[in-house]
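Q: What would this chain look like folded?
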Amino acid sequence: MGTEVQPQILVIQKISSVLIHGRDVGTMLEKVLEIIDRELGMRRGTFSLRYGDTLRIEASHGLTEAEKKKGFYNLGEGITGHVAETGRSHVIPDLRKDPRFLNRTGKHRYDGPTAFICVPLFHHEKLIGTLSVDRPITPETNLDGDVAFLEILANITADSASECLLLHQEKQTLLDENRKLRSMLQNAPGKLIGNCREMQQVYTELRQVAPTDATVLIRGASGTGKELLAHAIVELSGRRDKPFVTLNCAALPENLVESELFGHEKGAFTGALARRIGRAEAADGGTLFLDEIGDLTMQTQVKLLRFLQERTFSRVGSNEELHSDVRFLAATSRNLEELMEKKLFREDLFYRLNIFPIMLPPLAQRSSDIILLAEHFIERLNVKYNKKITKLSPAATRLLMTYSWPGNVRELENCMERAVLTTPDDCIHSGNLPPSLQAGAETAPEIPRGGTLREKLERCEREFLTDAISRHDGSLSAAGRELGLSPRMMNYRMNRLGLAGKK
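A: My prediction, written as structure tokens:
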């Protein structure tokens, strides 16, 4: 008895050393199988792990990668599936003669009698897979002793097998999240970035109106991306291959806006040395986009209203009526209703423009998009400045998420450009961000004063989740384990707080 037990004790010591000092769990399990092959003559060892109702070979000795992929069993199928279903060890005295042995890998071929032993793997009383070996039969073979030894081995390797299973599930979760994120980004029209609920509503409205010739009024604070939205409408319209002409009404002196819009004749005013066609004429057949339309003078508003109604206009200094077939888009960051009350904007023009309004939300209402946008800008700026920045530090992420962003997406883009230029390594740290963000963080209270108790708790919860995700390089599973949340609860909280699209 002593000579039988002694080799097994030495094997367990060697295996324990591998499990203690090893780092990669997959490699550790393969070394375990290599040891029992070399020391005890147990061939073709495999660890098969359970994924739902199926089992797959995760680690093996004596099998190629292609052969491992063939080792796929449904629960209850073959000996491996039977052990996984019942949770009890099983032995086939001679695998050559038992039809229950499926030999999926094609490697179990022997000239002499060979037993197949399969034992269950339990982790915290949950069956997570099986451990199986081929045992060539000799006069000294003790199958009962081999089963007992393998059951002990299953117990001491269960933690590593469970870790291997978790790593695979985490990887699959990350792949699913990335696939979902790519799908969301692909669903974003044009160059728009964002997948929060507010932006999804914008995309829905955009797709509804883009194929038509309806006038669209794009509203939103400065820096929210109104011109990008206008471009996206054109790209989805039937006029995408026709001229797209823009005019920023706030960027020109009021006496030149009408000339820029409708053109002028030679000598129409001082400096008019030649005839010039306007933007309305240049856009014939395509799309005319007027940005900051709330800054138009009342006189120009009258002429614009006529153009919208009839699609006819006259150049400055001419009585000749001209026609232009254009799709009309307008944008404003101003409150047109207040301007109408002050008699600074015509009601009839407002109603003519407001056929299909689209409201772009400020960045402060798009908290789940902030890191997504920041990473998008980093990728673009890496190319521009020949940098290789790959991540944001947890402190930098916290500053980005807690800042109020009065300048919206444009301010975030400028902020990231400064950060990319100033960081010396592959990570953007809090010190690389503008002083305005850091000053805001220094003066901000730990718990926001405004809002109900529920709103305050949600803001704190959002910050805890964001910090944990940052510390684990975007892995929701790892962040959930740190916070003591199951994957299901992590996804539930992310969805409830509007953070579901974040890496």
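Residues 367 and 401 are 7 Å apart (CA to CA).
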